Structures
1.
Amino acid sequence: MIQSVLIANRGEIACRIMRTAKRLGIRTIAVYSDADRDSPHVIQADHAISIGPAEVTASYLNSDAILNAAKQTGAESIHPGYGFLSENSEFAAACQARGITFIGPSSEAIELMGNKRAAKLAVEAAQVPCVPGYAGIEREGSNPDERQKQREDDAFIDAAATIGFPLLIKATAGGGGRGMRIVDAIDAMPGALQSARSEALNAFGSDELILEKYIESPRHIEIQIFADQQGNTIHLGERDCSIQRRHQKVIEESPSPALSSEQRDHMGAAAVAAAKACHYVGAGTVEFITDPEGNFYFLEMNTRLQVEHPVTEWVTGVDLVEWQFKVANAEPLPLKQGEVTQRGHAIEARLYAEDVQQQFLPQTGTIKGVNLPDLPHCRIDHAVAPELTVSPYYDPMLGKWIAWGEDRASALQTLITLLSQTTICGVTHNRAFLLKLLKHEQFQQGHVSTHFIDQHSDTLLQAGEIEPLYLMATATFLSQPAYPPYPRREAGTFQRSSALKREILLTLSHNGQRYPLRGQWIDHNRLQWCTEAQQERFITQAIDFDATRSTLTLSVNGVTHKIAIAQSGHTLFIDTEQGHLILEDLTYPTHSILNGDLESEADSGSVTAPMDGKIVAIYIEAGQRVAQGDTLMVIEAMKMEHPVKARQDGLVSRIDVEAHQQATRNQLLATIDGA
Ligand code: ADP
Ligand code: ADP
Ligand code: MG
């Protein structure tokens, strides 16, 4: 029996695996990078051991460091979680070679399924329907010369003409929604092949590609499978993961609102056949794409625990991590196929640190205030904590908010309640966006495809001007002498006690817009505010501030509100159902000088880094003419690539970075001289 487990991961999944391990009496060992010293997974583990610097290649992807940590702590087994080394066949083999149990399938199964080309060929042989396409010709060596590449490209272009358009170019080693190109016409093939190859090589270390027919208006439906060492393979029903952005899942649910029980049986049988085709052992997911006619096609198999596994756990009543330990202990599966039941409906929403309004750009920052409600039929798998830094090194997912109900409508309503009562201040996240999605009528009716977010972007992504309530909350918060202790306040710039009659002048800014406010104490509790134009008047009173929940209770014109608000220096964070708002207190002019954002707003010829990250491509040269909207560079952070675009027409007068250089947020990358 396994007595100890090292979890080669971080964040919510490390915490989730530990929860089951502890319940089973298994000693838990966390590993952490320099950036994660004080993270929840480190605090929750029985033992924790450092594995290196923040960069993933030096720590969480560093097999040697992890294997050394296992040796040093006497770990009998390693659970890889998802991402990182979970689908690395060499790592699984290295564990085995050292007598450490890898909680997952065999190295051979990982290798086979990790290659989209090999996987499709293997499952096709087992009669599993695959997306029509072209798997390419097998390469003779790992380093093809230019002529061989040209031959491959020609074969791809010929195959494309047969498959028809639109089609999808995929990296065989791809994952996480990356390395895909939609191609609409044959003329675009050569360019698309070239750029897909270079992205694939850069991101996955292999430029091997496949082609697939692009299924229009599809749903993504996947089957959870489980196999033991005795040769039993079963499935635990499906998850519908059609709500995606950038081909990455945002909302997942089980059962799928689009599947009949007959279709479920078919798809389940196909998934079991796919798993058997690679002699699979352990937990795995077979992903399918379905077309509006109800046909389904194999996409890929993920040979690990999936991010969205909790929805399956909830409807089937199975703890999938417990089963992983059982199978690793060579126990048979606790249930036979006929004994698997699905009860009720579960929905999960992924909370990401990202700016929905800026093409879902990942966000970094320090969490200042957290309020996680404890409600019946709800589960939050997270690793957030006050003062935790969301760094640019790792995936921006903060956790998963999950709800269960007897039926879909009640599960949905419970999840909406759970998310409405959650607040996290300090780093911009997608909570408000998730709420809009869950409340969307079409989604509520279950009428969605993988394009849902794009199709409804006008309603889902619209951002209005900040509501006066939040300006009033900020102004009231800043006017309380007890919080926040600005240095300037101590210097006595204004003191309420000595100068009740004195005016408070504040300048707040949000999204580059300035909001000058004039306040006057009416008595010791109440303030009267007017906007600079004197058009609106508000009477506010701070009633209470709950520091542990970062919640300000205030009244505005006689109505009481609870506002999640937190502060860091001159920056204030408010988490609302309108979005996570970041306001700057610009009352003193020095702040605007310190604030890089405003400077860059003012000068659209300065091209600055939108975030911390690595410059992976530079498309411009000094002296080149560019037009507004042109992509100038690509910056990569948190495993995602983001275009840096020109904000004006002009001539590139200088470039301040080189490819592969690390850049910090707001760093000047290039300068464009206007016409
Ligand atoms: P899952 O398939 O488990 O639902 P995803 O499809 O979102 O998870 O991501 C696949 C794997 O890639 C996960 O293990 C996740 O940790 C990792 N991942 C998530 N986001 C990215 C990304 N932007 N780029 C590369 N890998 C990612
Ligand atoms: P990854 O390994 O990055 O998860 P997948 O092959 O699983 O790649 O595809 C991820 C997502 O991309 C799918 O969930 C779906 O939204 C979209 N997709 C993949 N293949 C197709 C296709 N042939 N037609 C339409 N959409 C597709
Ligand atoms: Mg996938």
Note: DSSP finds 20 helices and 39 strands in the chain.
2.
Amino acid sequence: MIVILKPDADLQTQNRLIDWIRSQNVEVQLAQGQRQTVLCLLGDTEQIDAEQIAAWRIVDAVKRVSEPFRRSGRRAHPQDTVITVGTARLGGGHFCLIAGPCSVETEEQIVALAKAVKASGAQMLRGGVFKPRTSPYDFQGLQDTGMALLKLARQETGLPIVTEIMGIGQLPLFADVDVIQIGARNMQNVELLRAVGQMKKPVLLKRGLCATLRELLLSAEYLMTSGAEQVILCERGIRTFDDYTRNTLDLAVVPMLHELTHLPVIVDPSHATGAAALVAPMALAAAAGGADGLMIEVHDDPVHAKSDGAQALRPKEFDALARRVFAVREAARG
Ligand code: PEP
Ligand code: MN
């Protein structure tokens, strides 16, 4: 950590600051420039609160040299983490297609879609039963009934299930879920992150609508310090000024996250674009860009879907896309 002092910093306060830092068991080295003094903090600086130092009036800026990604960071764990769920594998060169409807609606719908996406090569089934809708007047999900239907589809196909938890009160219902999804809106719900982490299950953590990568990785840290080891990160688009897409797909985060973390990174082109016509091109781009998997919404009757119909692929469209995704993966292997 580096602390840059203001040009007019008085010696007395400077010495008090240095004493205070040293009292935190961190060594301080001084670099005296012509105008400004820089303090180089050496040792276990991660336990120091940068904001506490910035609060000193004589401090101009505080910069961390290393990020506090103790568990999710590459430095802590140089090899890629490979996550295994049933027969599906993600990370370290393994790729996984996760597909299914935005919301579980009926037994016929979820079982038929599960069979269809499995036949196309999907290795996990997604389906929302607790839906974080923007409006309280929109369909909120089938909740416990939906969970039972999702499990039935798992039983019929053998596909592991991925579904979103919205609050800690729902935890008992998720004991038997293969991958617990934390949605974009809850990425920084610390209480939920801690409680889900304690379940020690695989977690799919979506990037928040306005979250930086640092914030995403710190949320992964909450899960991991609470007990979760298998965390999948998901880029699902962020909010920008674009007016023709639901969100802006930030694809560069895939290689960037691969540099920062050993955790697998997948892309959700459905929520990132909001439009079925844009899903295939972005899915292919993500596969070419090194994503460890894709999560895609599929519906047999998008026009009558209870949520996100505009971005849903029909099973036939998903089947055609899946073939192209696998071909792109082969070609990109190099
Ligand atoms: C979803 O996957 O159904 C969902 C609500 O996604 P997000 O949290 O990315 O909006
Ligand atoms: Mn959706």
Note: The radius of gyration is 23 Å.
3.
Amino acid sequence: MSRKKISLIGGGQIGQILALISAQKQLGDVVILDIPDFEGSVKGKALDLMEMRPLEGYDVNITGTSDYADIADSDVVIITAGVPRKPGMSRDDLLGINLKIISNVAENVKKYAPDAFVIVVSNPLDAIVYAFYKVSGFSKNKIIGMAGALDSSRFKAFIAMETGYSTQDVSCLVLGGHGDTMVPLTRLATVGGVPVTELLDADKLEAIEKRTRMAGGEIVKLLGNGSAFFSPAQSAIDMAESYLLDKKRVIPSAALCEGEYDIDGLFIGVPCVIGAGGIEKIIEVKLNDDEKAALKVTAEHVSSVVAETKL
Ligand code: APR
């Protein structure tokens, strides 16, 4: 069996961690693509990882390039091309510049890797993944946005930090857009099967929900010159791995809804089954009235940003 191929479009902060984890997990050969000005940088990162191979004992190949022909026959393409936010910016502030970038990336991925499973990470996520879908014409099961995996991981981390119990036993779900209007579903969160509502009082849970919604901004403020990169990279790798190994994991992700959750024509965070068929299913959870209202608010927000793409 030949090795799988994972192409990373954008070899900056997140891209380099994606390359590292892909190699360590031996998911397949890795191509890191960036603009010509950064070709030396991604070639250098790739060579550094190649020289790490004997220490870690992995055998996959890692290469850097600025030539899209090198992504031909990719099984998975993960896109982080674009600019990250700076303190004081919202993800939506990135739309103008990242929209131009994604249009160019989409044309090239369509041309060189039309059969790949594409995971978009660039922000504002829900609008950028929509733009990729529109420009590339990819089928809806092969294009997905990474957001809910990260937002849910943050939610889990805060629950684990507050209870003092293992992160491994926390299970929870965040729906909606990748922004301050996202909807952490506290009602359904559990630790080792025990509802979190029985473990933490309402005030604490409300504070955790709020921190989850603002978690990206908390890191942007601390870093001062960019946004989170370790946890976004691991989140995208979980999605890629579920596809490559046909794991059929249930991972909240931005998928094209066509009637699910009463949302039509938008990419937004919903629980997705990810397997060899790409997005194999969107699972619909029964929501209570408050949750439905919150989802409506986040969908309206996503819709307003998508409208600005004029696509
Ligand atoms: N094609 C390929 N790569 C590009 C292009 C392009 N047209 N335009 C920019 N890039 C590259 C940049 O040269 C840079 O190396 O994308 C990379 C982005 O890396 P960083 O600036 O370090 O940003 P990062 O922290 O990785 O975040 C990337 O993901 O989470 C989101 O909001 C974040 O939109 C941002 C993206």
Note: Residues 9-15, 33-35, 38, 80-85, 94, 98, 101, 104-105, 121-123, 226-227, 229, 232 surround adenosine-5-diphosphoribose (CB under 6 Å).
